[in-house]
Amino acid sequence: MRPLALFVRGREVPRAVLCGAVVTLVAVVLSGRALEVPDIRYLTDYSVPIAAVVPVAHAVVLGTALFSPMAVLEEGAARLMRGYESLHVVLLTALGLVWTAVPLLAGLPGHVFASSVRNVVGFLGLAMIGARLFGSGLAWLLPLVTVGPTLLLGVGPDNTPEFWAWPIQPGGHLGATLAAAGLWVLGLALFLLLGPRRSERDEAL
Question: Which residues pair with 47 in a beta bridge?
């Protein structure tokens, strides 16, 4: 159990769990509210349930626990670490899904829950992709960069989400679900096969 405990502590999972719990409590309090989308192109009146936007915060929190700052040292135990890493990302995803389920206790509608589940999976995939592109310290970048333009530009003139705006599509939307699942699978593949992008400091070690 000691290697597993060191693995968890090295990725600061306890801190991520605590931060995620705080975000979840905020989501419970705001579960019945909606975020008015300020569409800057057509001035349409469109709102997104806050519970469907909160997953980006979950993904940012979980993204901080994906990789270890001692990844170079861990390469010496690559086979053992690979098994831990596979289980680790699955458990982090499951934790994100549990966090999205908690607002159900406050009466969150089922279709909003479906949107939340889809979004936490998709944004976590973006966090894994971001870690590969920009380094583990910037795993949060892609989720945040994605949600802003989506909220501002993702509603069309017919007052419905654009085809590419998967985070604000209704729950159960097939295209949005496939997009989120695809991002997670791609992120997982990059996570397991390549790991985070190394910095110049890493290369010098």
Answer: 36
What are the residue boundaries of the structural domains of the chain, listed by start?
3-31+43-194
| Secondary structure of 134-193 as H, E, C letters | HCHHHCCHHHHHHHHHHHHHCECCCCCECCCCHHHCCCCCHHHHHHHHHHHHHHHHHHHH
Long-range contacts of the stretch 35-43 (C-beta < 8 A, 24+) = 35/151, 37/151, 37/152, 37/154, 37/155, 37/168, 38/151, 38/152, 39/152, 39/153, 39/155, 40/152, 40/153, 41/153, 41/157, 42/155, 42/156, 42/157, 42/159
Per-residue pLDDT of the chain (205 residues; tens, 9 = 90+): 555 555 555 567 777 888 888 888 888 888 778 888 766 666 567 788 888 899 999 998 888 887 765 554 445 445 555 667 778 788 889 989 999 988 888 788 888 899 999 999 999 999 999 988 888 778 889 999 999 889 888 888 888 888 999 999 998 899 999 999 999 999 999 888 876 766 533 433 3
